[in-house]
Structure formats: C-alpha cells, structure tokens
Design a protein that fits this description.
- Chain B: Keywords: Cytoplasmic vesicle, Golgi apparatus, Membrane, Protein transport, Transport.
- Chain B: One of its GO terms (cellular component) is cytoplasmic vesicle membrane.
- Chain B: This is AP-3 complex subunit sigma-1 isoform X5.
- Chain B: It is found in: Cytoplasmic vesicle membrane; Golgi apparatus.
- The complex is a heterodimer of chains A (about 900) and B (about 190).
- By secondary structure, chain A is of the alpha+beta class.
- Helices cover about 45% and strands about 15% of the residues of chain A.
- Among the domains of chain A are: about 120 residues, Gamma-adaptin ear (GAE) domain (Immunoglobulin-like); about 110 residues, TATA-Binding Protein, CATH 3.30.310.
- In chain A, strands 12, 13, 14, 15, 16 and 17 form a six-stranded antiparallel sheet that branches.
- In chain A, helix 10 crosses helix 13 and helix 13 packs antiparallel against helix 14.
- The longest helix of chain A has 29 residues.
- Chain B is of the alpha+beta class and about 190 residues long.
- Chain B has one domain: 2-Layer Sandwich (Beta-Lactamase).
- Chain B is about 45% helix and about 20% strand.
- In chain B, strand 8 and strand 9 form a beta hairpin.
- Chain B is elongated and about 90 Å long.
- Classes of the chains: A alpha+beta (about 900), B alpha+beta (about 190).
- At the A-B interface, helix 2, helix 5, helix 32, strand 13 and strand 15 of A face strand 3, helix 2, helix 3 and helix 6 of B.
Chain lengths: ~900, ~190
C-alpha cells in the first residue's frame, strides 16, 4: 500500500478545524472521522492529543464518548497516568450510570491494552482498580475483578502490594457488598478473596483478614463469591496454622481452629449448593484438625499440603497445544475394520472430513533444525510483546529464555524508589507524583549522560538527540515486573493462533477461575405462595346483602355490582353521592354504561338560563337515573313531586334515556387533552335552545338531541313558556311526518293524531316537554312542519289557540358527544376508510379556547387533543358514524378539516359549523 | 440504511413511527420509549447525534434527531448513512410537511396520517433515501391529492348539491309566490355567509 502520509496529514489537519468548531455536530463528525483514521494511521492522530483531551471535558455525552474512543490510541507510557487520572475525575463527575460504565470499561481497556504495554507501575494500576470499586451501581464489577486477578497472578512483584490492598478491601467489604446485584461491584470481592487466600504468605495480618472473611455479613453475597470465600478461608487458615506452629504457639493455633469451627456453620446453611458442599467438607476437615490438635499432633504441614504448589494461569489454548505423543496415530485403526463394511465406510468419510486437511494438521514430527530456527525467527517479532512466550521464571519453556532480542522485556528487578507498602487504601494520585519525580530524575541522569555524549559529537546529529527526549522508550518502568507467562503443557507446540489479535485486552483474561457457577449462584428467594391478590376489593366492596347469597347465579351480578361500585366510587369522588341511592337500584343496566359525562360535571357557566327551570321535568325512569344522572337527587324538592307524577305518565310512552346535555368545554376537554393546558377564560352563557315559534300566549324554544343508546332516534325537548295571563291546558303537539322523520306517538294513535303535552301551564310558568322522533337517514338536515294546539283559559273564558312551527333537525343534532382517547383516535384515522372534507372561515377574533368550547357545545364534539392553536375533536352520530375534526387557528382564520365515515354527513356538519363559526 | 423513523412529542407520545426492518410491535414500543428517554434528556445546544438505541441492531447504529417546537424527529440509521445527510433529510421532511399542511402542527401527523406516510414514502423507501428535492416531493404529493379529489368527487356530489342549494342567494327569491290561491311559503332560511 502506498504511503499517503501527506494526504492523511492534511486530512487530520482539516479534521482538527472541524473539531475546534463551535458547532457540536461538526465536532462530533470530526471526532468520528478521526477515529477512522486512527485505525490506519495512529501516529498522525496522536499529534492532536491535546484537542482530544479537551473534548473529554465537553458537556455533550456523544462527543465525550467519541473522544473516549480516540483515547485508546492516544496513550503512551508517558501519558497513561495523566490520562487515566483525568478519566477518574470524569468518573466521579459522571451522572448517568451508562456513561460511567463506559468510562470504567475504557479505563480498563486503555490500561490493559497490548498486555499492559503502557503500564509502568502496577501498584498504581492496582490502586486505580481499587478506586474504581468505589463506584456505585456499576455493572462491570466482574471486569475489575478479572483485572485484579490477572495482574496479581501475572505480575509477581506486585503480589504483596496487591494482597495488602485486597485485604483492606475485604475488611471494608460492607461498602462494596451493599449492592448484591449480578455483575455488580461486589464481584471484586471474589477477586479479593481469591488473591488474599492464594497469596496468603504476603499477608501482614492474616488473622485479621481471616476474621473479615468469616463475618456473618458475608452470607448475603452471591453464591459464587461465598464459595470462593469458603475455599480461601481454608488457604488462609493453613498459612496461619503453619505460622503459629512454627512459633510453637499451640494455643493460638487452637484458637484459630476454634474460630473456624464456630464460623463455618453459617456457610453450611447456605442455600447455594456449592457453598454448602465446600463448607461442610471443610468443616469436617477442621474438626478433624481440632481433634489432632487436642492431642498435640503437629498438623500445619499436612493442612498446607492441601494447597501446595502454585497456581499459574493456563493459556486458553493450552489444551490444544499438547503435542501428540510420539508414535500415537489417532487415525490408525485400533482394530482392523471388518472387511465387509470397509467399502461403505469410505463414502461418508470423504464427505465429513477431508483427508488432505487432516494430513496438513498432523505435522510431521521431525522438522529439521534449520526450519525450526527459521520459524523461531519469524515468530520473534510477534512475541516481543506477548508474555505467553517470555519466561523469566523457571518454566518448561526455558529454551525461549535464551533467545536473543528479549532484553527490552521487563525482568524482575524491583526498583525500591517506590515504597511497596502503602498504609490504608491507596490514592492513585500519589503515584502520579512519584512517577513524575522519578522520571525527572531519570531524565536528569540521562541528560547528563547525553550531554557528555553531545560534547563529543556536537557537530554531528543534533536533531536526533532532541527527538529522543520525546520518545516513550526513554521512560524506564518504575517497577521492573516480570510478567509471568501462562502455564503451558510440557513441550507445548507454539503456534501463531494465539496472536491473532494482540490488542484484544480480554484475551489475557480467559482464566477459568472466572467462570460463573451457572445457576447455582442465584440465591433462592423465599417466597410465599401467591396470595390471592384480588380478594380484598371484591369482598369489601360488595355490600353485606350480597355476601349472604351463595347462589352461583349471583356471581355474575356480583361482578356487575362491582363494576358499578367502581363507577360509583368515581362519581363519589366528584359529588359525594349517598350510597343508598346506588344500592337501592333494581337490576343493573344490561350494557355497561357508556361513560357519558353527567350534568354535574359540566362547566357551570355554560349552563343556560332556562335550564334551571327545565331541570325538573326532564324526567327519566329510575334505571336511567342510576346509570347516568345520580345528581338528579339534588333537584329542588318542590319539583320532585311533580316529576314523579310525570314520570308515570311518560314511562309507558317512552323509556328514553334522560337527555344529555352537551358537556361544557371544560369537561369535554378535561381528560383527553394531553397537551397544552387550557387557559381559563370565562365563557359567555350560551344556550343550545333556539326559538321555535312564538305568539302572544306561548313561546316555544327547542333543542334536538340524539343518544347513542338508541340509534335513529332523537329527542326534541321543547320548552313551553306561558307569556299570557291565562292558564294553558290541553296542549297537544302535532307534526306532519316526512318519509324520513316520524314522530313517535303513543300506541294505537294514527299519524294524524297529536301527542299531548303532559302538563298544564299556569301564567308565567315555563316547562319542558320531550318528544321522540324516529329518523331513518341522518346524513341530511330535515325540516318538519308542526302545530301546537292548546286551550287558553282565563277569567273571561277559554279559547282554542294554535301555533305553527317548523322543527329543524340539523345534522349536528344527530351527533352525540362521545369522549375519545387519542390512541383510539389515531387508530381510527389510520384505518383510512374515512372521507375527508375541509372548510375555512376568515375573520375570527374569538380566542381558540372559546372557539373550541363553542364547537363542543353547539356541535356536540369533544376535544381529543389540543396543541397550541390546533386541536383534534371527535364526535359520533346516533347511527355510529365517526366524525373527526382537526381545527386550526391561524392569524384571523380558522380551518377545519373533517374526516367522517359518511361524506354527506361530514359535508353537512361542516356547513353547519361554518355557520356557527361565522358568527364568532 | 435507515432503520427506523420515529416522531414523538415532548411528552414521549408517538406521532409517527416507521420501521424499515421487521420488529414486532412490543419491541417497537420499547424502542420508542427508550429513544425518547435518550433524546429527551439532552440539552438543546448539544450535537444531534446519539449513540445507543441498543434495541435496533446494536452498536453500529446511531440516532440522528432534530427537535422542532413540540416534536422530536428521530432517524435511526446504521453507519452507512451520512450524518449530515440525514440531518438535511429531516429538514426537508419538515419543510415538506409545512408546505403540504399549512401551519403544520403535530396533530396533522395524526389527522393526515395517510398523507404523511405518502410524503415519507416519496423520500425514503425501504430504508433508502429516494428523493431530497422538496419541490419534486411536493409536486408528487399534489398530483396524488388531485387524484384523490377526483375520486372523491362522485361520492361527495350529494353533499355539494345540498350546500349549493343552501348557498343560493336567497334574498333575491320572492318570499311569497302567489299563484291563484296557492301560497307557497319560502322557508325563512338563515342566511349563510
């Protein structure tokens, strides 16, 4: 590949301009592109380290994450501490756990990359890890634990420091163990316990640590951690025993044994099988030791023999590399196959494994020395950074030790300029300082040396020496650590497979110790059998009367009652209706009552003046009352008597639902509106009643309402007001039926008969009568001619009078206010079988709020949602047509888009609405 | 490839969602919720790109979003899409909506859901960007609307006839037409504007 360094350089420079830009988007994209270049040309990106570090402080999380990605390629031996320190401050500041976790993994990634290539001081690294354990709510406890184990095992020189840190960690386990969630920070205790047990010879106060590990609190930890605790307690115990016996302190030795015998039973009771098994096994062992001790038999040797030898990490591929012993041919038949089947065997073998491949894998055992030397040479480069092959301690792989070219690999030689034991928990910062000092010293020395050299060859290569000061290689590690190789079988065959990705930090962590103990680690949670949750409401809510009955039939009713109870509760909150009223009701309504807003909930200012008077007569059967208008109870008592009488009269005629008032805008807007609070604005009192006819005796105003319960029926409420001084009686209303619209008459009456008005009117009194009409098609407005005939009686006598009128059934009157939730509304519109139409009205000065109220009131719509000056509304016709509106207010105009299952109905409704809006 | 287009308001209520790969309904809802949580807590003056949205396809994906008044427009894309390109696409989409629905509002997305999907289909098909020229998109949408209107013409005829009758200039017609003794009263219709 040709070298494009010049163009890459230019590219990186341009990207720097992007990153420096104040536009966050450009900054992000610059970093994104940088990270792509980093993969191929790390050097050219590294020169912009300052900028990237700066981005780490950005307030934008996306940018910080991008910068973090880049950091990976930025680190060197020189700046690792500095960068990690910076990251640690971010960890403290970070608020979101996801970002904090990201930081944590990045810190570990950066430090452990290429086999800890950039770490010069492992004490510092251990302290960083310990500091990270103080993070709360992280999900990467296992990562930290794995790092601790890896470092403690592979870096021998650090073990004593690591052990002291880990014992401190165990001592303060209560801080860490507070969250016992899976993969939580408590995982580090796993590593801590293992390290303290395995390297117990480095412990300062083994007895103290032993006690810390046997605390009762430990039993709250996850099972797999407890198991490790139990196992390592014995290791500790063994080393203490040895110590005490060497000091011939039999009493102390027995005391330790007693401690074990006292504390181990808590683990034996564990719910986790692994813990239980290990603990009971060890308990028996310790008891046996106790017996021996009582007889003054030295036992320490034997107990520590249990844990003799050193555990070395096993390379993940070790098994594969076990060489095939001389003379073993796995492909050879042990017994000659039967001659019959041989020919059949041939075929499948050819399919499943290629013989040639097999031969290729099976290396010829004897390779001449030259070939070996050549291979070794080729591998040397890759092995430079790979500790798997550099063995400084006695190991089976000795032959690699004397291979030239590994001098630059750190070898045991502890520089004691740094104290190995730091009391208490470490503060990683101190290492940074120490490191600086150390480097400074080194540099001075080097400078001195260089000066001498420089003096010698001053004329020569000046530039070279100045360059050299900057290079990383100048920094000698503070602690020369030997990185222990992972254990390999004898005569392991070296292969290149291991080196596929030397940068992958996790490859080194493939230690089997880490393996979770499958499901057994989960502590079973004590649980009661599920109590019936539904018991209480049902039992409590059903009144005592219901309880008595045991017939299965009642069950259904109970359920219904419950439903009603619920409903009742809802209502009760609002109005505090008395219970008796509800409980006294006869059979519950067969159909679940549609949540129709009752009059009480209406905006009161929207209630028209005549309503007060007509409230009484608006009679309804008790059924309807209980379902929908419990507040009728509140009616003035003087009306009550009258009402009952009228009820009797009306019931046989029509068992109609009591008429629903269109809800006031506040109510209609109430629940479904989710956006934008409705501003409170007093509405002018309005009435939906319009003048029907008037003469000197009587004035008629009327309103037409439909109800969802009865399709194709509408109720016309007519308020009759006596204007004269005479007594009006024998009122009779007659309407000329059309094909489409017919008045409901008492049974047996002909179409020409009138319907009597069920009351008489004394002078100055007004009252409301209701008449039912059957409508076939509701998509068009209708007009019916009619006559009211009555007898006006005064002191002078009675006269027969007539008043003609025209009943106008607008399309609006067929609509019934129906609340609709926005989700259902969206679904309805999505279904796509609605026709669309729209109108626009100019010159509107009314506020949007009042406008909506007006539409709600006059056209029986309810607001589904409202956003600023835009609202969606819904209504339904008595025959089930959906009508959806989108009302938008512009500067001085209002546009209404409508969708409806019937286009004619929609057109007419919109026309009517246009007329209403035009008056605004 | 664009994996998903999500539009929701400041309260997290989804207004439009379009997924260009099969994801079951529950997961879709979960994705919308998660995306809303990610996006809503970001300041106004930070960048418009966001990593995460783990549910759709993993780490390769990015959320590119814009916030307009009450709505968040979020595009979930994989790494093959240009970030700035998508930002621009969002802008085009919003401008097109504004052109098609005057004074566009989030409720338009609900009410005219079919049209919004049409617009989107003009711009993005199967996760690939088709068209970024707003004029081109608007032309197509207009043509579509015209077609719809001509189809709706037959069904809407009666309604139009009725409104035509109502809108006749009634005052010019004599109130009472007397032909012999037959008196036909012309209804006193309310005058419409």
């Amino acid at each position: 590949m040709p070298n494009h360094s010049a163009s890459i350089q230019l590219c990186v420079q341009k990207l720097r301009i992007l990153i420096e830009d104040s536009d966050q988007n450009l900054k992000y994209l610059g970093l994104l592109a940088m990270s792509k270049i980093l993969k191929t040309h790390p050097k050219s990106v590294q020169s912009h380290k300052d900028l990237i570090l700066q981005c780490l402080d950005d307030k934008d999380e996306s940018i910080r994450l991008r910068a973090l990605d880049l950091l990976y390629g930025m680190v060197s031996k020189k700046n690792l501490m500095e960068i990690v320190k910076k990251l640690m401050t971010h960890v403290d500041k970070a608020e979101g756990t996801t970002y904090r976790d990201e930081l944590l993994t990045k810190i570990i990634d950066i430090c452990s990359q290429s086999n800890y290539q950039y770490i010069t001081n492992f004490e510092w690294y251990i302290s960083i890890l310990v500091e990270l354990t103080r993070l709360e709510g992280t999900r990467h406890g296992h990562l930290i634990a794995a790092q601790m184990l890896d470092v403690a095992i592979r870096v021998k020189a650090i073990r004593s420091f690591a052990v002291s840190q880990m014992s401190a960690l165990l001592d303060s386990a209560h801080l860490v163990a507070s969250s016992t969630q899976r993969n939580g920070i408590c995982e580090v205790l796993y590593a801590a316990a293992w390290i303290c047990g395995e390297f117990s010879e480095h412990l300062q106060e083994p007895h103290h640590t032993l006690e810390a590990m046997l605390r009762p609190k430990v039993t709250t930890l996850p099972g797999h951690i407890q198991a490790v605790y139990v196992q390592n307690v014995v290791k500790l115990y063994a080393s203490i025993l040895q110590q005490k016996e060497q000091a011939t302190d039999a009493e102390a030795a027995q005391a330790v044994t007693q401690l074990m015998v006292d504390r181990l039973p808590q683990f034996v009771q564990s719910a986790d099988l692994e813990v239980q098994e290990r603990a009971s096994c060890i308990l028996q062992l310790v008891k046996h030791v106790q017996k021996l001790q009582a007889k003054d038999v030295p036992v320490a040797e034997e107990v520590s023999a249990l844990f003799a030898g050193e555990l070395n990490p096993v390379a993940p591929k070790a098994q594969k590399k076990v060489p095939v012993p001389e003379g073993l041919d796995l492909d050879a038949w042990i017994n000659e196959p039967l001659s019959d089947s041989e020919s059949e065997d041939e075929k499948p073998r050819a399919i499943f494994h290629d013989e040639e491949q097999r031969q290729a894998r099976h290396r010829p055992p004897e390779v001449d020395e030259e070939e070996l030397a050549r291979r070794r040479e080729a591998r040397k480069q890759e092995q430079a950074n790979n500790p798997f092959y550099i063995k400084s301690s006695p190991s089976p792989q000795k032959r690699y030790q004397d291979v030239p070219g590994v001098e630059h690999i750190p070898v045991v030689q502890i520089d004691l300029s740094v104290p190995l034991k730091v009391p208490g928990l470490p503060m990683s910062d101190q290492y940074v300082k120490l490191e600086e000092e150390r480097r400074h010293r080194q540099k001075l020395e080097k400078d001195k040396r260089r000066k001498k050299r420089k003096d010698k060859e001053r004329k020569g290569r000046r530039h070279r020496s100045s360059l050299a000061t900057e290079s990383d290689e100048d920094i000698a590690p503070a602690q020369r650590v030997d990185i222990v190789t992972e254990e390999m079988p004898e005569n392991a065959l070296p292969s290149d497979e291991d080196d596929k990705d030397p940068n992958d930090p996790y490859r080194a962590l493939d230690i089997d110790l880490d393996k979770p103990l499958a499901d057994s680690e989960k502590l079973p949670v004590q649980k009661h059998r599920n109590a019936e949750t539904s018991k209480s409401p049902e039992k409590e809510d059903v009144p005592a009367v219901e309880k008595k009955s045991k017939k299965p039939k009642r069950k259904e009713k109970k359920h219904k009652d419950k439903e009603r109870e619920k409903e009742k509760k809802k209502d009760k909150e609002k109005k505090g209706e008395d219970l008796d009223f509800w409980l006294s009701t006869t059979p519950p309504p067969a159909t679940a009552p549609i949540p129709v807003p009752s009059t009480d909930e209406l905006g009161l200012d929207a209630v028209p003046a005549p309503r007060e008077e007509c409230e009484g007569p608006r009679g309804a059967g008790p059924e309807e009352e209980d379902a929908e208008e419990p507040d009728q109870e509140r009616k003035p008592s003087k009306h009550k008597k009258k009402k009952h009488k009228r009820e009797k009269e009306e019931r046989p005629k029509d068992r109609k639902k009591s008429r629903q008032r269109p809800p006031g805008p506040e109510e209609a807007a109430g629940e479904p509106v989710q956006n934008g609070a409705l501003e409170e604005e007093p509405l002018p009192p309005v009435s939906s009643y319009v003048l029907l006819a008037e003469n000197s005796h009587v004035r008629m105003t009327y309103d037409v309402q439909g109800s969802l319960q009865r399709d194709s029926q509408v109720t016309v409420s007519i308020i009759l007001e006596n204007l004269s001084g005479s007594f009006l009686k024998s009122m009779e209303l007659n309407v000329l039926d059309s094909l489409n619209t017919k008045m409901a008459r008492p049974e047996g009456a002909s179409v020409h008969d009138g319907v009597p008005v069920p009351f008489q009117l004394p002078p100055g009194v007004s009252n409301e009568a209701q008449f039912m009409f059957t409508v076939q098609s509701i998509v068009m407005a209708q007009k019916l001619k009619g006559t009211l005939s009555f007898i006006a009686k005064d002191d002078e006598g009675a006269t027969h009078e007539k008043l003609d009128f025209r009943l106008h059934f607008s399309c609006t009157s067929y609509l019934v206010t129906t609340p609709c939730y926005s989700d259902a509304f969206a679904k309805l519109l999505e279904s796509g079988d609605l026709s669309i139409s729209s109108i626009k009205v100019d010159g509107i000065s009314m506020s949007f709020q009042n406008l909506l109220a007006k539409i709600c009131f006059h056209h029986h719509f309810s607001v589904v949602e409202r956003v600023d000056s835009c609202a969606s509304m819904y209504s339904r016709s008595i025959q089930g047509h959906h009508v959806c509106l989108l009302v938008k207010k512009g500067e001085s105009s209002v546009s209404v888009d409508g969708k409806c299952s019937d286009s004619t109905l929609l057109g007419n409704v919109l026309e009517e609405m246009k007329a209403t809006l035009a008056q605004c | 490839m664009i994996k998903a287009i999500l539009i929701f308001n400041n309260h997290g209520k989804p207004r439009l969602s379009k997924f260009y790969q099969h994801i079951n309904e529950d997961t879709q809802q979960q994705i919308i919720r998660e995306t809303f949580h990610l996006v809503s807590k970001r300041d106004e003056n930070v960048c418009n790109f966001l990593e995460g949205g783990l549910l759709i396809g993993g780490s390769d994906n990015r959320l590119i979003y814009r916030h307009y008044a009450t709505l968040y427009f979020v595009f979930c894309v994989d790494s093959s899409e240009s970030e700035l390109g998508i930002l621009d696409l969002i802008q085009v989409f919003v401008e097109t909506l504004d052109k098609c629905f005057e004074n566009v509002c989030e409720l338009d997305l609900i009410f005219h859901v079919d049209k919004v999907h049409n617009i989107l289909a003009e711009m993005v098909m199967g996760g690939m960007v088709l068209e970024t020229n707003m004029n081109e998109i608007v032309t197509q949408i207009d043509a579509q609307n015209k077609l719809e209107k001509s189809e709706a013409g037959l069904a809407g005829a009666p309604a139009r006839a009725v409104s035509a009758v109502k809108n006749m200039n009634l005052p010019e017609i004599p109130r009472n037409i007397n032909i012999g003794d037959i008196s036909i009263k012309v209804p006193n219709l309310p005058s419409f504007k």
